[in-house]
Amino acid sequence: MAEKCDFGLIGLAVMGENLALNVESRGYRIAVYNRTTKKVDRLIEGRAQGKNFVGCHSLAELVESLATPRKVMMLVKAGPAVDAIIEELIPLLSPGDVIIDGGNTHFADTERRTKYVEEQGLWFIGTGVSGGEEGALLGPSLMPGGSKQAWPLVKPIFQAIAAKVGPNDDIPCCDWVGDRGAGHYVKMVHNGIEYGDMQMICDAYWMLKSGLGLSNAELYDVFADWNRGELESYLIEITRDIFSVKDPEGDGDLVDKILDTAGAKGTGKWMSQLALDLGVPSTLVTAAVYARSMSARKEERVRASEVLEGASSVPSEISAEDRAGFIEDVRQALYASKICSYAQGFVQLRAAAEEYDWDLDFGQCAMLWRGGCIIRAVFLDRIREAFDADPKLENLLLNPFFTEAVHQAQDAWRRVVTTATLLGLPVPAFSAALAYYDSYRSARLPANLLQAQRDYFGAHTYQRIDREGVFHTDWIRERKPPE
What we know:
By secondary structure, the chain is an alpha/beta fold. The protein has helices at 14-25, 37-45, 59-64, 80-89, 107-119, 132-138, 151-161, 182-211, 216-226, 234-242, 267-278, 283-296, 298-305, 320-356, 362-368, 379-389, 400-423, 428-440, 447-458, 475-478, and strands spanning 7-10, 30-33, 53-56, 71-74, 98-101, 123-130, 141-146, 164-165, 171-172, 178-179. The termini are far apart. The relative contact order is 0.09. The model has no long low-confidence stretch (mean pLDDT 95).
């Protein structure tokens, strides 16, 4: 009898193929299947040749090749395809087997599927997988949630293939997140923070390029310097590298030849929509989503640029002596905005945990993102320390380290946003972050007037600051214009 496999994987696009190779490289025997079976044969005869792989041409063959309890992971396009495969797998599996969805799935679908699969006597895991093609092959960040009974069954494999961090590179960026859709929700927030990070970096780039006139070679040096300090991260690192790439099909730098219209896959939008549902102000991801939407209106923007004027007066050109100071201001604006962005993300995670009854460990969530994923950064160690010190921390801005950091950065931050406004340069993420900070630190906001307006036109009532109760005023009867 042929040796049974430890793990099964369905879906051999680039992510699936790389993850399968990762699993095998950790000492596991893996069975693979793809609806287009030519992909199976190509892998077995190519990158998997001579390795501990079994290629399968049907789901039944895949299931039959697995040792019990079977562990079958799907890496297919989110949506109906996942439900269809689940329906095909259920009659082939036995009680106690595990179905795993590793796609970019909406958390509500994972909530539903966990309940359904458990009703069939099986276990279900919905796991976020971050890190792209390279991460899948060398070590991704994994954020599993679903049926907690399934975690001990997949934990050895998941933690073996995950990215590792720590002084000895022995801490896996993978641990149990929570019940049902918790894993996919945490992955969604990761992606939303990623949207914010990328737009903040674009704000910094635009200020330095269009506001200060730095060349790409100078931008390379700036980002290289930033990557040696508190902004050290994967996204800063790759941004540095982008400025060094020449156009392989012509003269000049490649970044300047790329059309300024940004794509999106929807997870940032999900976070923004769900923040609205929860009533939490995740303004950074929303600003980043809208920035991409605006970028996509390229032809319309070109027409508008020929009609609409910018600032009538702008600050005088920054002197060579002041350039270093302005670059430092932009760095501090980026750092302060980044703190606000992550603060918003964890506020939304806390609200979601309360809404959906998930027992989330926020410090542990930060460590899941410390390696392997797109937002990996040394900054996340500070977030873990903040939640270790106070697991009930309301907002990262209230942690002493981050409080001091934004206090030190805010004068520079305000100078950058002011300069951008005077120059007519859009910095949507910097501006949204500063507005959030100023709103959050304000003991009183103008919402008293807003509530009065609502009561005036719709009798929506209001509360008072000087007495208990709910009140309504007949504003038309009571109005008395000044004499």
